[in-house]
Amino acid sequence: MTFELGHHGDQEVGGGLLDLAVNVRHEPMPAWLSRPIADSLTELRAYPDDLEATRAVAARHGRDPAEVLLTAGAAQGFVLLAQALRGVRRPVVVHPQFTEPEAALSNAGHQVHRVVLREEDGFRLDAGAVPEEADLVVLGNPTNPTSVLHPASEIAELARPGRVLVVDEAFADITFRAGIAGEPESLADRRDVEGLVVLRSLTKTWGLAGLRIGYLLGPAELLSRLRTAQPLWAVSTPALAAATACASPTAIAAEREIAARVAAERDHLLRRLAHVPNLTIAGSPAASFVSVRLPGAAKIRLELRERGYAVRRGDTFPGLGPDWLRIAVRDTAITDSFVATLTDVIEERA
Length: 350
Hints:
Layout: E1 18-20, H1 31-40, H2 51-60, E2 68-71, H3 74-84, E3 91-95, H4 100-107, E4 113-116, E5 136-140, H5 152-156, E6 164-168, E7 196-201, E8 214-217, H6 220-228, H7 237-246, H8 249-273, E9 280-281, E10 289-293, H9 297-306, E11 309-313, E12 324-328, H10 332-349
Parallel strand pairs: 1-11, 3-4, 3-5, 5-6, 6-7
Antiparallel strand pairs: 2-8, 7-8, 9-10, 10-12, 11-12
């Protein structure tokens, strides 16, 4: 099967459709975030200066500023890795997962090896499936599109001398586990895992997809190599203002509240989906989206569009296929309306 690695959820929306295809929160921006972004617009005559934002992100994760690289969205980080690490011989991408890492590697001339996790195993990570000779390994946690959260301890087992281990944590700040403070299974603050690079995004939780802001955390020497591959002034002044604000204690506290709320809304979605005929849920979802397997999903997706709902097709993800859909977590009212419509579509096709 040929997968469309360049296809993303934003291509599913438009035309007045209710968006359950894109994993970006749809809530108003809080004043503590919107105000510094707006204020930064008076400073656009000057070139961007990332020093304050870099220090703020470093402080949030207990790191040295040299271990932080701000990027124009986390996706730019994958391009920098692919360009700066041209010497790697055996890059491995663990699928199903966000397709941009493989696309960036392929576009830079790398021959990518895939490790595909199995549905019958709940799409859980099997560290033993990664070839020992892999000198670059990329995986997501929690993983887009399956929403599976892998144990940090098992991911850390993938570290090897001479290997770069890249963990995409674009949705880590939306994960929640009762009784655990912070982001369960995140490796963002870990400095003891050899060759570890963590990518983070600020676009999902805070609805900043159009602003393009993310960052990488990792060894200073390695990030210095990536920085040489990055264009000058790659991150805009408004995006830097957002990064500083989102690293504040106020932002972190708000993230915790949002993560708990999303967990409750996700549980509601899962309860409703459990009663949909012929539907199978992927793994144990832990993020702000779930993937489901449905016979005839491609036609069901088109019928849902006719009835006003956009969901993400799953056949562009290696390891899934034409019977898969990804559904974003929304509030309970939207979920109830969507699942009722989905059930109607399936029953009418029976």
